[in-house]
Amino acid sequence: MTEAVLLWERDKSVSKTRYNLTPFAISLNELPPSDSRLKPDQRHLENGEYEMANAEKLRLEQLQRQARKLQESGWHRKDEDGCYLYIGGYWEAREKRNWDGIPDIFGQSSGSPLCLVEE
What is the mean pLDDT of each run of 10 residues along the chain (119 residues)? Predict the structure, then answer.
C-alpha cells in the first residue's frame, strides 16, 4: 500500500454562515435567468405532472430556438465556421448580478418575454 498524501485542505480563514456554508457556496444560489435549474418543465416533472412537463418542454424548446436566432449575446460571438466562441463578460455580470440583456429563454420573468413566431 502506498503512503497517503494530502491533496486538499479547506481554507480555515473563510467565514462561515449559520448553516456552515462558505460565501462561495451561497453565491451559487444566485443564478442567471437562463440557468437550467430554473426550468419550469423540471418543476412539473418533479411534481409528477408529466403531461404539463412535456407541454412546457415543447414550449421552451420553441422559445430557445427563437432565442438562438437572436443570440449574439455579450458573452459569445459566432465565428466563420458557425461555432460560438466565448468572448468574456459572464463573470463580470455575475459579480454585479446584472443579467440585463439576457434572453428570457424560460418565458417567465416580468421582463419582456420572447414571443413565439410561427415559421
Answer: 82 69 74 77 86 92 75 74 84 85 63 39
List the beta bridge partners of residue 77: 85
**Per-residue b/e over 21-43, b at no fewer than 16 CB within 10 Å?**
eeeeeeeeeeeeebeeeebbbee
Locate 54 and state its grid cell.
412535456
Distance CA(14)–CA(23), nearest Å, equals: 8
pLDDT at 110: 39
Q: Is the dihedral of CA 53, 58, 63, 65 positive or negative?
A: positive
